[in-house]
Amino acid sequence: MSKAIGMIEFKTTATGITAADAMVKTSEVEIVEAQTVCPGKYIAIITGDLSAVKAAVDAAVTTYEDKCIDSFVLGNPHESLFPAMYGTTQIEGISALGILETYDAASIIEAADQAAKTAIVDVIELRIAKGMCGKSYMLLTGEVSAVEASIEKAKQLVASKGMYLDSSVIAHPDQRMIDSIL
User: Fold this and answer.
1) Which pTM was predicted?
2) Is 182 helix (H, G, I), strand (E, B) or coil?
3) Boundaries of each BMC domain copy (predicted)?
């Protein structure tokens, strides 16, 4: 039994809530977050054993496929994802800053997991479609080469789904810039 997280992203709140309800009725999973995000989409993030999360996400997506924007299941998600989602990551010094932006909510979490597993980086923040018209972004830090490798790998993943918007790596960002975004 391995730990996993899964997410659904739907075009409408009504379908999203109904699909989230179906997920928890399908399998023994816990809702981590379920809410309306910009622009009136609905996301639900669940956790549990890999097989339970997969069954729950599959049931929701299959039943409401016509209104599903995106979904994923991640087995053994990187431990930095949840602090980054909730803005509780503690960072001491930023050598390089990586930024990746997507058109949707689900792919940014997958991208962050991929980036964190690619090189030694710290995921600072995951902004999931809140106040961004449905777009999402992540911030990460580490040594310049590690950040570049992580952003490139995450970019490839998101681009393969057609959800890549933009990315950047800033070597040695100015402290005033860091203070303004953190």
Assistant:
1) 0.85
2) coil
3) 4-86, 96-182
